[in-house]
Structures are given as structure tokens and as C-alpha cells.
Amino acid sequence: MDKHHVEVLLSEEEVDRRINEIGEQISKDYAGKNVHLICVLKGGSFFLCELAKRISVPVSLDFMSVSSYGKDTKSSGVVKIVKDLDESIKGKNVLVIEDIVDSGRTLSYLMEMLEAREPESLKLCTLLDKPERRVVDVKVDYTGFQVPDEFVVGYGLDYDQLYRNLPYIGVVKFD
Ligand code: IMP
Ligand code: MG
């Protein structure tokens, strides 16, 4: 690991406040319905837990783990399902929960694959969005924050598997 330090980009309070807002919005948008949250592991897990607690319509959960083929993990665009969902999503109102949309490759592949399983509806909620890095167009329905093109960690996001547990969003700065 290169020598680095982490600087705060979004404080715990800011993230908390924004998740409250998104939770309220989702509760309104899904009023009278159930929502089936699909968490993309591992990055989406912290956001999923915080968000799910703030949704007032009935919530069910499932988890999925994906990885990119090839060594250039960020740009191959081919996604391998490492852990598939436990339950069918057919006829459900599915909301995918992600940590960050970067190039958009992972999500565009994943959303297409999920759509083919015939959910009643399919939406995407991401804590962070790096629009400058987008290569493949992805429709994002709920976004926590747009972030600049820097490497961010915390709230589920890692640098070499570390920092996922930070209660804020930080930027990795190389010394
Ligand atoms: P994609 O390029 O949109 O396919 O992003 C794929 C994945 O790369 C995300 O789900 C994250 O796991 C990871 N990723 C992208 N940018 C960052 C970052 O700044 N910090 C940590 N992980 C990132
Ligand atoms: Mg991820």
C-alpha cells in the first residue's frame, strides 16, 4: 500500500442527514407498496442498513455479490455473479442499493440482468455518484451525493479492503 492518509469529504452528520432525506423520499414514492432492497456487496452494505432503517413501507432484503472479469477490474465491463440472490424478484418492486456509480459498467450490466428476471419495477439508489467518470449510461433514481473524480472510502467503500467502517466519506490522498 502506498503511503497515504484520508481526509474527510462528507462528515458523518452530512451523510446521516442525506440518508434521512432519501429514506423519506423512498417511503413516499413506494407508499402502499412493499420495497425489495437488493444490496450489492460489500460496498453497499453500510448504506443499505442505514437506509433500510429509515424506510417506513414494508421492506424485504436480499444480497448479491459481483466481480469484474479480468485483471482490469474497473474497465472490463463483464461482470461475474459471485453470489446470486436467494429469492426470485419476479413481480417485486426492486430497489438496488449501491455504494458508488463510477464508470457505470457494473450497474448497467447488473440492471439489465435483473430486468430480465421480470420485477414489477426496478430502480437504482446509490450513495455516491462520480458523473465525470461515466463511460456507460446508467439511469440512477436516487443519489446521495455527487463526488469529484477522486478515490473515496468509508461507509462501505474500501481501499484494498480497508476503511469500509469509517462513519464518514473520506478521500484517499497519496503523500
Ligand atoms: P463502476 O466503474 O461504475 O462499474 O464501479 C464499480 C465499483 O468500483 C463500485 O461499485 C465500487 O465498488 C468501485 N469503486 C469505484 N470508485 C471507487 C472509489 O472512489 N472508491 C472505492 N471504490 C470505488
Ligand atoms: Mg461496489
Short structural description:
The chain is of the alpha/beta class and 175 residues long. It is built from 3 helices and 9 strands; from the N terminus they run βαβαβββαββββ. Helices cover 21% and strands 34% of the residues.
List of distinct ligands in this structure: inosinic acid, magnesium ion
Shape: globular
Q: Return residue spans where pLDDT drops below 50 for at least 5 consecutive residues.
A: none
Secondary structure class reads: alpha/beta
With strands numbered from the N-terminus, the spatial order across the biggest sheet is 4-3-2-5-6-7
Radius of gyration: 16 Å
Query: Proportion of β residues?
Result: 25-35%
Helix content: 10-25%
Mean pLDDT: 94
Main sheet makeup: 6 strands, mixed
* Secondary structure: number of strands: 9
Secondary-structure element series: EHEHEEEHEEEE
List the total number of helices: 3
Q: Span between N and C termini?
A: 12 Å
